Amino acid sequence: MSNLNTNNKNNLLINWALGVIAIMITAYILPGVSVSFLGAVVGAVVLGAINVFVRPILLILTLPITFLTLGLFIFVIDAFLVWLGSLIIPGFSIVNFWWALGFSIVLTVINLGLDYLSQVK
User: Fold this and answer.
1) Residue 67's domain spans which residues?
2) Secondary element (H or E) of residue 92
């Protein structure tokens, strides 16, 4: 039992560290986004919590428009959540909605790449 619990903690720490790295890389790529190291560390936790608790509610509430746009409205939801996170997180700022949209798209691509690299053995 303790071995399973240790593996879950290790996976959580690895995913959190990858989130920090992804936020730092994305902020480096996009000039409309600025983030400090502490902002990225806190941002990984806050954005993760927002994605766990707020995103499912918004996805359910916006299901009709998401259906009509063939799922593209999810990008708008993700941009709103990133913008919301930038309001909460000190050391993490986004210029406007369009940079938040770009941040969410680039962050998704970088997270997919880092996740793939962490799975390769």
Assistant:
1) 2-119
2) strand 92-94
